[in-house]
Design brief:
404 residues, alpha/beta, Rossmann fold, 3 domains, 18 strands, 22% strand, C-methyltransferase
Length: 404
């Protein structure tokens, strides 16, 4: 896969000429854009693994061109083509097999339960995935719950009384559902028209002015500031900053109640309730984010080059990447196209025995590493470094553990 450099080109100087790029921001609709790194072809869906290596290598790909809106500080893939990704039951992105992540979710459920007195109320989880968070929230709070997601699967964990799931998207097709609380976690970044999506939620006939919404997305500033570059994936159309997330919510007709960052600053959250749409006040953008954007193109390429050099000195059969989520799939596709990675390791049993789109890299469970003379374990997320080190120790592994 070729990584191209746009050298932060102006919006009228696109990084690639192979297809038409979106020329306006999906949040504020302004056309004052900078283009940064781009990819000729990356897998459409990092979280749709394959049953065999051949089908994984043949997985469909799309073009990626990172654009930055100078007006509202939003980032997005200007080459994204809506309708190319299908979120079916094959879509597997659950992180709830990690103790570190479970602890985060438990703390979040405790906080939301207390802040919004959810006992006896109806909580919706839109884009609920396999239902783990909604079950935790309702178990903690005493709320009833309905989860909506076409990728939901039955027989995933224990049932929770008062919680049900619908293999569909939430819409006016469910006019009798009257929520008191709505969570929508790691969904908005997948939506090509985020304002229209939020307006659709707000305009549901049973949503009231008192309905509380909790929205959570990846933090684009973490990608820029801390070089979390493996988060750039096709299925994420948008990369929200604190300002662009607030702009999106207020433009769609919400009043912001609270806003912040969580999970080691890797996530942004915003809590809001329906209000009257209003014009955004003029915003003075700091020079700091401009500097980050201009630096990102060069530092991205430098980081990819460093990893290619590192892996060139490693035995591919003794090198593994720990984490077969979007970060790990991106890593093996970019650096260096999977050629020097023996396997992806993941604690999620529903990923094990499958293969990464693009490269066909096998996904294995930690137990399969026992007794192997590994040289290097590349950890995709620094928050899991200690967890991985403990697991490696229990498996008797003496490999170098290095964070990507």
């Amino acid at each position: 896969m070729q990584v191209q450099s746009a050298a932060c080109a102006e919006a009228h100087e696109p990084a690639t000429n192979s297809m038409r790029l979106r020329g306006d921001c999906p949040v504020c609709r302004q056309r004052n854009l900078l283009h940064s790194v781009s990819f000729d072809a990356i897998p459409f869906s990092c979280n749709s693994l394959h049953p065999d290596a051949n089908s994984a290598v043949a997985a469909p790909t799309g073009q990626f061109v990172l654009a930055f809106c100078r007006n509202c500080e939003h980032f997005f893939n200007a080459a994204f083509e809506d309708g190319r990704i299908g979120y079916t039951q094959n879509y597997e992105n659950s992180l709830h097999f990690s103790p570190r992540f479970v602890a985060f979710v438990e703390d979040l459920a405790d906080r939301l339960s207390a802040a919004y007195a959810l006992d006896g109320k109806l909580a919706l989880d839109i884009g609920c995935g396999k239902g783990d968070f909604l079950k935790r929230l309702c178990s903690t709070s005493g709320a009833r719950g309905i989860g909506f997601d076409r990728s939901f699967e039955d027989n995933r964990g224990d049932d929770v009384a008062g919680v049900e799931f619908i293999n569909d998207w939430f819409s006016d097709a469910y006019p009798d559902v009257k929520p008191d609380f709505v969570s929508c976690r790691h969904v908005l970044e997948h939506i090509a028209s985020p304002i229209a999506f939020l307006q659709g939620l707000r305009s549901h006939p049973r949503v009231e002015p008192s309905t509380v919404f909790y929205i959570e997305v990846p933090n684009a500033l973490y990608t820029l500031r801390d070089m979390g570059i493996w988060d750039l994936i096709y299925e994420h159309v948008s990369y929200f900053t604190p300002h662009s997330l607030r702009v999106a919510m207020e433009t769609a007709g919400f009043e912001v109640l609270d806003q912040g960052a969580s999970f080691g600053d890797q996530y942004l959250f915003i809590e809001a309730k329906p209000s009257e749409p209003r014009m955004m006040a003029p915003y003075s953008k700091s020079e700091k984010i401009d500097a980050l954007v201009h630096r990102f193109d060069r530092t991205y390429r430098d980081k990819v080059a460093w990893w290619r050099d590192y892996l060139s000195n490693r035995d591919p059969e003794r090198t593994v990447v720990w984490g077969a989520g979007s970060k790990g799939i991106t890593f093996v596709n970019i650096v260096p196209e999977g050629a020097r990675i023996g396997a992806l390791v993941d604690v999620n049993p529903h990923k094990q025995g499958r293969f990464a789109p693009g490269t066909g890299t096998p996904v294995v469970g930690p137990e399969s590493l026992r007794g192997k003379p590994l040289q290097s374990i590349v950890v995709m997320n620094p928050l899991y470094r200690d967890e991985v080190a403990q697991a490696a120790c229990k498996l008797g592994l003496s490999a170098e553990i290095i964070v990507a």
